[in-house]
Design a protein that fits this description.
Helix content is 43%, strand content 14%. The protein has 342 residues and is an alpha/beta fold. It has one domain: Metal-dependent hydrolases (TIM Barrel), CATH 3.20.20.140. The radius of gyration is 19 Å and the shape is globular. This is Phosphotriesterase.
Length: 342
C-alpha cells in the first residue's frame, strides 16, 4: 500500500508530509457524560480552539498530517471529529483498536467466539471484525471514513487474557489490511519488550509497529533494544512533564540521534483539546507545556542547539511516518530522495 486513509479519504505517500504520529483531539466517556455533566465540555469553545490550533499547526508550523489515536475505550467519536475538522487544512488519520489496560467490557465476553452469544453466532471474533471493517469498509456513522492505523495497549498488568485477545485481533487485522500497529506502554514495566516478544511469536512484522510512549524513558539501552529488534519507537509525550521533563526527553532523543537511530524514531505529544480525565483547567495549571505546538516551539529548537541536523528532523517527521503509515519501502525511498536528496 502506498496510500493512507484519512478523515477525508485516502492520500498518497507524497501528501503525508510532516507528521505528528501520536495525538488526540478529544478523549471522552459517553456513558459517564450522560450521567455526570462535565462543566468544561463546551463543544463550541472546544471546536473553535481546536480549529485555530490545527490550522496554525499547518499554516505556521508546517505540520501536514495529524494521527489521532483515540479508539474505543477513550471515547472515540469520529462523527464529532468530522464536524470539528470542517475547513481544517491538515490531514487527520484516525484509528481503530481498543484501549484497556486490563479487561474488556462484558459485551466482548458474551460475544466472544466462546461466549454466551458468540458461540451461537459463529464467525470471526467481534473485535477482529470491528478492526478490519473500520479499515476496509469504514467506521460506523461516518459515511465511509476508514481507519489508517491500529492502537493497542499494555500497562502495569501486562498482557492479560483480555489484552491477548485484543492483540490477536490487531495482529489478524494488520495481516489482512496492511495497516500499522501503534502501542501504549508504561516504561516503568518495560512493556515494549513484552509487546515485541508477543508480536514476534505471533507473526507480526516488527517493522510495522511503533512502540509508543518510549520517550518516557531515559534508558538508552532499552530504547536501542526496541529499535534494534525492528520496531519504531514513539518519542511522543513532549510537554507531558508530570511524567518526565522535556529537557530530559530532548537530551535522550539527541543522544539516540547522535548514535544513528534517526530512521527508527517518530515524535509527537499525545496531547488533546479536551479530555474528561485531565480537563483543560487542570492541564493549564499543572502541565502548561502539554499542547500540539510544543515540538515546533521548543523541542526542535532545542534539538538544533544540541547539533541535531535538519535531515535528522526530516527523517523523523516526514520519512519515517511514510514508512510506518504505508509500509511501502519504494514509496518511502522516493519521498526520502525528494526531501533529503540522494
Amino acid at each position: 500500500m502506498s496510500t493512507v486513509n484519512t478523515l477525508r479519504g485516502p492520500i498518497d505517500s507524497t501528501q503525508i508530509g510532516t507528521t505528528l504520529m501520536h495525538e488526540h483531539i478529544m478523549a471522552r466517556n459517553p456513558e459517564l457524560e450522560q450521567n455526570i455533566v462535565h462543566p468544561e465540555y463546551d463543544e463550541a469553545a472546544i471546536f473553535a480552539r481546536a480549529r485555530k490550533s490545527l490550522t496554525s499547526l499547518h499554516e505556521d508550523k508546517g505540520i501536514d498530517t495529524f494521527v489521532d489515536l483515540t479508539v474505543l475505550g477513550l471515547g472515540r467519536d469520529i462523527p464529532t471529529v468530522q464536524r470539528l475538522a470542517e475547513g481544517v487544512p491538515l490531514n487527520i488519520v484516525v484509528a481503530t483498536g481498543y484501549y484497556t489496560a486490563k479487561d474488556l467490557p462484558t459485551y466482548f465476553h458474551t460475544h466472544g467466539p466462546d461466549g454466551l452469544v458468540g458461540k451461537t453466532l459463529g464467525g470471526p471474533d467481534v473485535l477482529e471484525m470491528m478492526f478490519v471493517e473500520d479499515i476496509t469498509k469504514g467506521i460506523p456513522r461516518t459515511d465511509g471514513v476508514k481507519a489508517g492505523i491500529i492502537k493497542i495497549v499494555t500497562d502495569e498488568h501486562g498482557i492479560t487474557p483480555d489484552l491477548d485477545r485484543v492483540y490477536r485481533a490487531a495482529a489478524r487485522a494488520q495481516a489482512e489490511t496492511g495497516v500499522p500497529i501503534s502501542t501504549h506502554t508504561n516504561v516503568h514495566f518495560a512493556n515494549g519488550r513484552d509487546q515485541q516478544k508477543w508480536f514476534k511469536a505471533n507473526g507480526v512484522d516488527l517493522e510495522r509497529t511503533v512502540i509508543g510512549h518510549s520517550g518516557d524513558s531515559t534508558d538508552l539501552d532499552y530504547l536501542k533494544e526496541l529499535m534494534d529488534n525492528g520496531s519504531f519507537i514513539g518519542m511522543d509525550r513532549f510537554g507531558m512533564e508530570f511524567v518526565l521533563d522535556d529537557e530530559s526527553r530532548v537530551d535522550t532523543l539527541a543522544k539516540l540521534l547522535e548514535q544513528g537511530y534517526a530512521e527508527k524514531i517518530t515524535i509527537s505529544h499525545d496531547a488533546g483539546f479536551f479530555s474528561i480525565n485531565t480537563p483543560p483547567s487542570w492541564r493549564a495549571k499543572y502541565t502548561p507545556n502539554w499542547h500540539h505546538h510544543r515540538i515546533s516551539d521548543y523541542v526542535l529548537p532545542e534539538l538544533r542547539k544540541r547539533g541535531v541536523t535538519e535531515d535528522q528532523i526530516t527523517q523523523m517527521m516526514v520519512v519515517n511516518p511514510v514508512q510506518v503509515l504505508t509500509g511501502d519501502a519504494e514509496a518511502t525511498k522516493a519521498v526520502a530522495a525528494k526531501v533529503l536528496g540522494p
